[in-house]
Amino acid sequence: MNNKKKGLAFSLLTMMLVATACGGNNNGNAGASASSSASASPSASASASDAGASSPAASTEAPKITMTIQYPKPDNTEAIALEDSRIKRFEEKYPNVTIKKNDWQYAPSEIGIKMAAHQAQAAFNTFATEGKTLSEHQWAADLTTLMAGYEHKNDFNEKLLGPMTIGGKLYALPYDGYIMNVMINKKLFQDKNIPLPTADWTWDDFYNAAKATADPGKGIAGFAIMAKGNEGGWNWTNFLYQAGGKAENVADGKVTSAFNSDAGVKAMEFLKKLRWEANALPQNWALNYNETYNLFKQGRAAMVIGQKIEDSVNQAGMKKEDLMVLPMPSMEKGGDHVGVMGGNYRVINPQEPPEVQQAAFNYLTLDYFNQSGLDELKRILDERKTNNQVYFWDPTSVYYNIDSDYGNQMKDILAQYPDTVFTVDDQAVSMMKGEPEATYNAQDYYGVITTAMQAILSDKNADPKAELDKAAKKFDTEVLSKIKVE
């Protein structure tokens, strides 16, 4: 989703929560933010075909190139420091390339205007939901040729490549990924002598924890769900998946809504119980992405979907030992702990000439699978250690195979900073199961779901089935009926 969770700045070394649900025409990744991450920013060594560009002689003879890249917003100081470091290293290696900075962040409602005006950066970030939109409108370069000469083309995390592989062609490089989880303020549990939930928890356990930790008189919610913008539908979809449902059906060349199923009704009824029976949600429940996490950082929500560990500790001053990340609950004991799976991706602008596209590819892959990526991780960890800050690492979402030689080198470095690195418990990681977001028009889907959620949250007599049917009719009529599947 766009904000965005993801919102969130996660490194390609971590998995983010990002952010708000992304959207657009097709392919879904709504939760992650397309803004620059505050975590380590992986990139890769130059392709074999341009290996000579790093030598002084080759660089001197290379044509002068000016390239605009996406730069973090002014208030994202950690991400700015990381990007500045990367720019410096890139320009040292490729002195013929001049980097220009532009802090425009991808938005589904703006990308068409930017491309029509030729104002999009040579390299910019997007969400996993945008794969088909970008490819069908030719707003993302086909990376087939660029990848062909890249020595690590076969070393990426295949799961993360999937959302941006359309018709056998790759249209973006993975930046970070995520499987939605739950972030918990352990202190709010301990203050009321409530046992902490465990990784194998169920909807009943989640409900009881939310109800027990809620303290409406003090303005404390047991659970804060996003319910203001499209990110509301992004949050709710986790429960839809846990109930065994899906967002859409594809059959006979047509796409239709599937969320108004028995599973969808169960998921919406669960939300209704949290609101009206448990009184576990914030009194002002209409929160967007940032507002939800701000409530958590203020100690006014015991649980939220997604994680902002670094932001909570490094920016808000929460204590590392007071935080915990668990997989999403299963609907029933022994069921799957399913969370929405998405990620942030890096696009190369197809409007740029070939030499700029190559430079953009070199920039985006500067540290991937490279010693500089290891060095950058160590530099960040040293800096975080000096500043008494944490670094979040989620092994489920990195761009590389964690069991590869490069992955093992990364894990060896992380192990040297036990007091700085925050990792998800191994048992929790083993239980996390990701389910991709809606394939078609994910943003529109999230929007109609948010409307249904708001009806349920504002009226205790609202009927979950009726609201979902209304949402499905609107989505089918106004959006999905216009899609033809080849």
Automatic annotation (TrEMBL):
Chain positions covered by the region annotation Disordered: 29-68
Record keywords: Signal
SUPFAM superfamilies: Periplasmic binding protein-like II (SSF53850)
Coiled-coil region: none
Signal peptide: 1-21
Feature: compositional bias, Low complexity: 29-59
Keyword Kinase recorded: no
Name of the protein: Extracellular solute-binding protein
Biological source species: Cohnella hashimotonis
Lineage per the UniProt record: Bacteria, Bacillati, Bacillota, Bacilli, Bacillales
